[in-house]
Design a protein that fits this description.
alpha+beta; 19 strands; 4-stranded antiparallel sheet; Double-stranded beta-helix; 257 residues; 33% strand
Amino acid sequence: MTRQPGTVQPPGVVPARVRAGVGDEARRLLHRDGAVILTGHENTADALVVAAAHLLGHRLRELYPHRVRTSRDAGPVHLHADSFDVVVDVGGVPHRRRDPDEDHVLVQCGRPAPAGGDSFALDAHAFVDGLTATDPEMLDFLTGTDVDLYGSWAGLRGLPATPRVGRHVEYTRTGRRIVRRTDGAAPIHRDPDGEQVHALLTRLRDAVHGAEAALPRFPLAEGDILVLDNYRCWHGRDAHSGERTVRILTLRSADAR
């Protein structure tokens, strides 16, 4: 890929591929790159759970219900980190179905698209570090301003009525850095700086979308499982024709917030 004069190359990630059962190597690559592709698993929902257990072992703490996503002749999915805040009542007992602090996501290709649909990923830690030189105002916003993380989705059934307030860049108690990216973020209700916050959220969205074209692409074959450090890597996919199906499993490990 040719870098244009005066531009900054976005920190793209091309995950290494590791055969199923080679847990130590997969863990090493996930730690090094923030992402890895596991090959050779069965094309089933159970394979996601098995892969998560092999990869994280005793550090695995909580799995959330796996999701199936089928898209047909669809547009692109922009760079994002998976997170949501959904608690449901099952027989009078509250159950958490999604968590704002999911720290890993596994995406299995159930059916690749006939054309298009390649994946891409970005090292969000490197992206934020680069803002020191390219956009210090944005860096100050991401590290120093509270937002309502899911405020744009208020009113969705199951979403808690209490706003989830946080910053795009935070740290766990053990020092692990979280870099969030969601289209649900909105200014906190009646924030006196709400107009500026909205403008910076729009600017962040435009910067992230603008970086996507220069990122390297990688395909997922049927059964492949893309594993991401959800605190470090944002991911997306290209538009595609025909039908494409993926299974998604999010989880929390012992290292999560």
